Amino acid sequence: MDAIKKTLKDSAAIRWLVLVIISMFMFGTYWFQDFMSGLKGLMMSELGINSSQFGLIISSTTWANMVGMIMVGGIILDKWGIRVAGVVFGIVASLGASITAMATYGVFGDDPGTMMKFMMAGRMLFGIGLESICVIVTRTTVKWFKGYELALAMAINVAFGRFGTAFGTAFSVEIGGGHVAPAVAFAASLIGFGFILFLAYLIFDIRLDKQVNANKKEGGEPEEDFKFSDLVKLATNKGFIYITLLCVAFYSAVFPFIQYAPDLLVNKFGFTYQLPDLSSMTLFEKIGAIFHNGPKVTGLIPLGTILFTPIFGSIVDKKGKAASLMILGAFLLIFAHVSLSLFNSVTLGYLGLVSLGVAFALVPAAMWPSVAKIVAENRLGTAYSSMFTIQNWGLGLFFWGIGALLDFVNRADLAAIKAGEKMYDYTIPILTLVICGVISIFLAFMLLRADKQNKYGLELPSGVEAK
Ligand SMILES: NCCCC[C@H](NC(=O)[C@@H](N)CC(=O)O)C(=O)O
């Protein structure tokens, strides 16, 4: 038997280069997913929309995914591979983002109704690409890093996405020069840039496949293929059900919150949307102005997770305790939303945001590797696609629901709010997210119990089998 030859992925330099290239795709798609949060005030004044309509635009990202588009993405990925799936969903995401940008420039008509309709259509198309790209990039990371630094690579990959969220949220007002359309066009061009880099990655993908196929004669791994029976197996796996429901409850209280956080800080704590001129300020005044700016402070949440997700990831790898850490994350989530809704203290508000940031680093670091302990490897593609689909049901509801609830509870004051005489009261919409936190704790405890019964090994370090 011939010796198995070294492949491209055996070179650490090439592996990490590939990770950076594919992660730029995540950077662009996460930017586009989240940047509008920093523009909410501007969108309301410039496009004449209310909070509920803003919520609809954000929520439209999830609509096609709610009815199974991510599953279609997963099937295309499993049947035709990374290259075909990446190109198809890269085109879909770029097209959706371009339609959204054109709509804000008034290409399809400049009345608010037409603009909104096409923005939603564009974001819906983009959303199909976003989620499938996330699955494709995750799958590609596994392809290159399995047997190497997989947990760290996944954490760094998510960190690129968080960079996109942080910078998109913090800087879109300035990038747009105080207008919505240029900020949307810039965000759309980042997806195009990420897609071009992904096309460049395909050269590495083709080379690696050739090398792996050559080695397969010496005994390689069989490709995974989508089977509908896998769905049935997943739907009857208790651990998978708990972790999927936990994923919905947890992310529903985080991603939608981030979309509204700048507006909450402006309305509740008197923060600004636009930075004042910093040039004549002392260093302390500059820092004060930044920490008093809604989009910038919100941007710090995902920015903090960039450091902490890999740290928590390596704790999970080395010490285990993934289910316990998810319980802790759910407690932090409740503290965050209680302190941001029921109290009016800015200090407590900052503590709430820090607590949310830690939970946002902790839970994903513990949750995503745990899926691989609960579900057999040949069903992982289907497992991630199913989780993302169900996650989108919650996201769709809360992206829109927070805005709709905001308009509803403030209905007596809407005219005064529009005229700038009053501020939105965010208490009830944010308190609703506390319910998600409570459900998350319950599910995390159920997961811990299921782990003890089924011996998934969630509390054990990476690579240690439960007996
Ligand atoms: N290896 C899996 C990484 C998932 C990271 C996770 N992303 C999601 O949940 C997606 N559905 C993306 C999205 O909706 O933006 C995350 O924590 O970002």
TrEMBL record:
What's the catalysed reaction?
L-lysyl-L-lysine(out) = L-lysyl-L-lysine(in); L-alpha-aminoacyl-L-histidine(out) = L-alpha-aminoacyl-L-histidine(in); L-alpha-aminoacyl-L-lysine(out) = L-alpha-aminoacyl-L-lysine(in); L-arginyl-L-alpha-amino acid(out) = L-arginyl-L-alpha-amino acid(in)
Protein name per the record: Lysosomal dipeptide transporter MFSD1
Subcellular location(s): the record lists: Lysosome membrane
Q: How does it assemble?
A: Homodimer. Interacts with lysosomal protein GLMP (via lumenal domain); the interaction starts while both proteins are still in the endoplasmic reticulum and is required for stabilization of MFSD1 in lysosomes but has no direct effect on its targeting to lysosomes or transporter activity.
Its membrane topology, per UniProt?
Answer: Multi-pass membrane protein
- Source species of the chain: Gaoshiqia sediminis
Q: Which Pfam families match?
A: MFS_1
Tell me the keywords, alphabetical order.
Lysosome, Membrane, Transmembrane, Transmembrane helix, Transport
Q: Which InterPro entries match?
A: MFS, MFS_trans_sf, MFSD1
Extract one GO molecular function annotation from the record: transmembrane transporter activity
Q: Name one GO cellular component term.
A: lysosomal membrane
* Protein purpose: Lysosomal dipeptide uniporter that selectively exports lysine, arginine or histidine-containing dipeptides with a net positive charge from the lysosome lumen into the cytosol. Could play a role in a specific type of protein O-glycosylation indirectly regulating macrophages migration and tissue invasion. Also essential for liver homeostasis.
Q: Which residues cross the membrane?
A: 12-33, 53-77, 84-108, 120-138, 150-171, 183-204, 239-258, 297-316, 323-343, 349-371, 383-406, 426-448
Q: Which family does it belong to?
A: Belongs to the major facilitator superfamily.
